[in-house]
Predict the structure of RNA-binding protein AU-1/Ribonuclease E/G domain-containing protein.
Amino acid sequence: MAPDFQNGWLYEAGIGENRAAHIVDGALAGVRVEREQVGAKLGSIVDAQFTQQWVAGSSGIATLDSGEQCLLQPLPKDLTEGATVRVEIVREALNEKGGQSKRAKARPAGEGAALVQGPSLLDSIKASGAAIHQLQAHEPDMLAAMGWHEAIEQAESGRIDFDGGSLLVSLTPAMTVIDVDGPLKPLELAKRAAKEIALALTRFDIGGSVGVDFPTLQAKAERTEVCVIFDEYMAGNCERTAINGFGFMQVVSRKTGPSVLDVMQADKVLSATLALLRQAERAQGTGAMRLDVHPAIAAKVKHRQAWLDALSRRTGRSISVAAKGDIAIAGGQVS
């Protein structure tokens, strides 16, 4: 790839995980991660059986052919339990940290709507019209060069450091909460944080309800100044409240699926496993390859032999896995 790639998407079809980085003016503006998905994709139009009415004439549960349940709202007129209804998935299921999950959301599909599978990550970035460069393992690691690993570390930890402070992004069932901390004077800290928050919401595709806890600012003019900075850097379509006297602001946007933070934090063993497979695919050398890993990762790949088979095909090397209790989950080694 030309080193002067300045705008567009970098896309990598990995083992068990596809990755995309949005580059704007030579800097990383967005990261997206797509993993093997059991549930229905956003934008899919599928047939379902109306299983249970929740609120009469308003909402209920529909069951897809796969057995997945989704929240259907609104309900078509005269729909009865047990009937077949064609629906469009408007939000994918959310698998949250700690094992909790939320059903996908659906709405009735338009009359005569054809059955369709929702777009893949590659389909979605193609639809943006921006330039796309598809990366290969034998090429220089342009994702790393653009700051991919640092961004993924932020997503995994929820901690985003910036000059003069830091953001702690916490995922809860009700909303995403962002706490601002740092040694600067409150107004300066809030101004710098406002920019970083706006950039982070776009970078990690964070939607739904977001609560931000800024430093307390007594003067309304100061709070307004901070809001203006947030609006300047916020690229996504959202609504927000003013910052109240306690420093709290709420940002609301449409949530169509898990954010990058949701994906990376839902199963940290899985995240570490897929990162190791990426490292192994890019490893130099010939002959047999051994992966020394934490026992939890060894157990994960034991049930995903297809991933090891793919690694063997892509590298032309035989693969073995050794579980070692003294290796951290994220400390797997390739030899």
Summary: The first strand starts at residue 8 and ends at 13. DSSP finds nine helices and 20 strands in the chain.
